[in-house]
Design goal:
mainly beta; 6-stranded mixed β-sheet; 4-stranded antiparallel β-sheet; 1 helix; 10 strands; globular
Length: about 110
């Protein structure tokens, strides 16, 4: 059962911008705080930003000032706008609820390189 479908990743130069999208079911979207996570090669998956049902956002240090999380109730979609991207942002990006619902999606690859 597919719960999360991430898209929008790609190859971008340092300083560039990407917007990731995550589509999910109406039930999950309307009843859960949502989050974006990332996993770089050889590292554990980490949360980068979250947004609750009311729209309150929270960012971990790597994302502060550069990433913006948002949600569109009409589309049951969560977004992650990423600006001023750095090579260390290279990772597979996933979305999920803040309590980590299985199964995870396939993620979307973000590569920041010149």
């Amino acid at each position: 059962q597919v719960q999360f479908v991430e898209s929008g990743g790609g190859l971008v130069q340092p300083g560039g911008t990407l917007r990731l999208s995550c589509a999910t079911s109406a039930t999950i979207f309307s009843t859960n705080a949502m989050a974006w996570y990332r996993q770089a090669p050889g590292k554990q998956r980490e949360m980068v930003a979250s947004i609750n049902v009311g729209g309150l956002t929270y960012y971990k240090d790597p994302a502060v000032g550069r990433f913006t999380i948002s949600r569109d109730a009409a589309k049951n979609t969560v977004y992650l706008q990423m600006t001023n991207l750095k090579p260390e942002d290279t990772a597979v990006y996933y979305c999920n609820t803040v309590v980590n619902s299985d199964p995870w999606g396939q993620g979307t690859q973000v590569t920041v390189s010149s």
